[in-house]
Design a protein that fits this description.
Elements (H helix, E strand, L loop, with lengths): L1 E8 L3 E7 L5 H12 L7 E6 L17 E6 L13
Parallel strand pairs: 1-4
Antiparallel strand pairs: 1-2, 3-4
Length: 85
């Protein structure tokens, strides 16, 4: 188990947690949403923000000190791209 920061949007909740980096992110998301009691796992997307910008890409596995971000899907609604030319 490694220690990570957890941020939940749009609530901007911050917590610390220990996660098992050997399991897939999808499993971490499911367990994290249940542990936080913030709804159903299907309502969220998960991302990892590395603590260090020098950290190499590691197959989407968290490392100590990283931040795990959970974003409620309804807040992702709408286009993320606007063509301007």
């Amino acid at each position: 188990m490694i220690e990570v920061e957890v941020m939940v949007f749009p609530e901007r909740t911050r917590r610390r947690a220990r996660v098992d980096p050997s399991v897939p992110l999808e499993k971490i998301k499911i367990d994290m949403v249940k542990a936080l009691g913030i709804g159903e796992p299907e309502e969220y997307e998960i991302a990892v923000s590395p603590r260090s910008t020098r950290q190499t890409y590691q197959n989407l596995r968290p490392t100590p000190g990283d931040t795990i971000i959970l974003v409620r899907k309804e807040d992702l609604a709408g286009s993320s791209v606007e063509l301007i030319g």
